[in-house]
């Protein structure tokens, strides 16, 4: 690993907790998300994790170019993000916050509460060749990014 961080490598400080619109209503609250408006990318895919058994860990990978917004649509869970240098843990427990992850951020999701739903908005369709599933390969990829 090089001693100085590549300026083009995404970092944990690029991962932002975004507050989403919330319409308060005594009948129940409503949150909406418009692609490109409330997400920094056009939405191409939506998926969700649910029925996650207690103690399970999801994720454990990075994406070469995919951007995502991760939302605790129900319940709570933690997202650990890692840019190859620094790690940070976010606890998501509100349906009107989303954690934005740019490309090339390693993530692990754990600490799922019972009945939690992890909603993910993604910038592209699913492609397995877009994943980096090996942590050492991830660090090498980040270090090898062009400096200009
Ligand atoms: P994966 O992204 O590894 O799950 P997680 O990061 O949430 O732990 O995906 C698990 C499996 O589901 C894997 O075989 C690929 C498949 N999958 C799709 O077919 N389409 C999708 O949009 C996603 C996210 C996963």
Shape call: globular
Terminal CA distance: 18 Å
Low-confidence stretches: none
Question: What ligands does this structure carry?
Answer: thymidine-5'-diphosphate
Series of secondary-structure elements, N-terminal to C-terminal = EEEEEEEEEEEEH
Structural class: mainly beta
Rg result: 16 Å
Major sheet description? 5 strands, antiparallel
Instruction: Walk across the major sheet and give the strand order.
Output: 1-9-6-11-4
Helical run tally:
1
**Fraction of residues in H or I helices:** under 10%
Strand content: 35-45%
Total count of strands: 12
Tell me, rounded to a whole number, the average pLDDT: 95
SSE order and pairing:
Layout: E1 16-19, E2 22-23, E3 30-31, E4 45-49, E5 58-63, E6 68-74, E7 77-82, E8 87-92, E9 97-101, E10 106-110, E11 117-122, E12 131-132, H1 135-143
The structure holds thymidine-5'-diphosphate.
Provide a compact summary of the structure.
The chain is mainly β and 148 residues long. The chain contains one helix and twelve strands.
What brief labels describe this structure?
mainly beta; 148 residues; binds thymidine-5'-diphosphate
